[in-house]
């Protein structure tokens, strides 16, 4: 009896699907046009990337959207402070831009230890930006620990590149 009901249901479904129209609609939607980004105050410019985009941010801060840390450290040194000051100036100039600070670690240590260290690194960068006048509600943080390395390998050079905090535009 169950077999007959199952067969009947399959046949009914097949009949319903075969009745669906498979031809393309006569009117297609218009091609996408550059948006003005009214919600964030961004605009697309012919000379470069959209204001408030990640590319615009990286160019405006001269590639200083990444700060680096010493082994097992999350303190902001003078070089990091200079990069974060440039980032803060950009964020103050474009108040509609929201960012996430990503905390990263090298491959050494346990997963849990590196997630905690990455969180401390991201929060240290966020707190410094907030101390420079950027509203805290515009900055979120995330820790990737050792899960997203930029340099592969087990050398001091690779480890140094992976101990970082990266500021990323999210709108």
Note down, in words, how this protein is organized.
By secondary structure, this protein is α+β, with helices and mostly antiparallel strands. It is built from five helices and four strands. The protein has helices at residues 2-18, 54-60, 78-93, 111-131, 156-162, and strands spanning 66-68, 99-104, 139-145, 164-169. A four-stranded mixed beta sheet has the order 1-4-2-3. α3 crosses α4 (111-131). The radius of gyration is 25 Å and the shape is globular.
List the topology elements:
Elements: H1 2-18, H2 54-60, E1 66-68, H3 78-93, E2 99-104, H4 111-131, E3 139-145, H5 156-162, E4 164-169
Parallel strand pairs: 2-3
Antiparallel strand pairs: 1-4, 2-4
Helix pairs in contact: 3-4
Kindly list the characteristics that best describe this protein.
171 residues, 60s Ribosomal Protein L30, Chain: A, 4-stranded mixed beta sheet, globular
CATH architecture term:
2-Layer Sandwich
How much is the radius of gyration in Å?
25 Å
Shape: globular
Give the oligomer, counting copies of the same chain as homo and different chains as hetero: single chain
Number of helices: 5
Q: Terminal Cα separation, in Å? A: 57 Å
Proportion of residues in β-strands = 5-15%
How many domain modules?
Answer: 1
**What summary fits the major beta sheet?**
4 strands, mixed
Spatially, the strands of the biggest sheet line up as 1-4-2-3
CATH top level class name: Alpha Beta
Q: Would you identify the regions where 5 or more consecutive residues have pLDDT less than 50?
A: 20-25, 33-40
